[in-house]
Amino acid sequence: MDLLMNIPVVIKILVSLGVILVGNKIVKNLSVALVLGILILSFWSGHSLSSIGKITWARFSSINGMFLFLLIYLVIALSTQMKKTGNIDELVIGVQSRMSRRSAMAVLPALIGLLPMPGGAVFSAPLVDSCDSSENSDSILKGRINYWFRHIWEFWWPLYPGVLLAIELSGLRTPVFSTLMFPMTLCYIFGGYFFLLRKVPKDEKTERKKEGSILKPLTPIMITLGVYLLVMIFFPSLSKFSQYIPMTIGIGFSIIYLQIRRPVGPYDWKEMLLSSRSLQLLILVMLIRVYGAFIEAPLPDGMFLMEKMREELFSWGIPVILFTMLIPFFSGIATGIAIGTVGASMPIVLSLMGPEPALGVQLSTILLAYSFGHAGMMLSPVHVCLIVTNQYFKTGVFRSLKGLIRPAAVVMVSALIVSRIVLILF
Fold it and tell me: Which of 6, 206, 233, 361 could join 357 in a cystine, given CB atoms 3.0 to 4.6 angstroms apart?
């Protein structure tokens, strides 16, 4: 038993994630697979039944957790409302009449990606699906495109909590951090185009006639973003109470605006608010949050999983540059969320640079660590956007991730090259 408990932390985490992937493939129920993964990770980490109960309850009952569930519920409601009122169809027509099907499939989730909404891929999934009215592309490909291009901005867009936390921890000013990380968005787009978007069949060569507007159907999204920014500027204390409150308020205003402009009847609202799909997604989000809680919770000996992993990797004599890549990468896989990835790995990575690192060392280390963390997050089976995308397109998590390995590898190789260039220049 002692031998089993003393197995390295990184193996424990990877095994628990493997159980989630394989379990989902066998039982065809992701919620059951997540419960199995949670139990394996928690017991294998040495938690007792009582501590498992306390950690789970603390995650469920936290203010942040409650507002996260409310936000995702409202996101699903707004996306359904926009579909029923014709906004989504108008947006798709406006975009498709101006660009190819390939481009539209990437641009639409990227537009939605400007909003830092947890599980926001559920919003963009119907948009991507609508671009393929003739069903020339497989659901698995559409799901991968939606998931991938939803996250192109998360390297540098300062509305994302993960970016804001990285800025705070690194001590860099926002313009400096955003400029540093912007090239990685270009590399990310290239990887997505080369390995995903190119597989979408080309349109027949016909002259396009611009139809409809793009801005008008995007009004609810712009209202959400505008209200979010206003709340962050004038009521910053609300985001301290819960980081999800500003976006929740923004989504609420958008729902009210759309209801006034294009009213939806009571029967439709009942269908939207009480749908089994919404309930299933909320259950999945709750279970993912619980899994994350055991990654973040202190172990019975008082240490944290990521700290223990650092000690193990150091004891194996791994070079610092590999350490800089591996810790964020495994943190991304384990947490499946940018703010968790940054919070778990960035302090460890920054401590490796010493008290007064040269500017080039500092910038290249931050770029390398954040990029590898982002790649790990995109390959995580507990990433909420991946889960909701697969739920919409009725595809498997394992198959989805399999097709994302190569574009993620492009990001990581690019990060190595760009970080070396930054080191030389500064």
Answer: 361
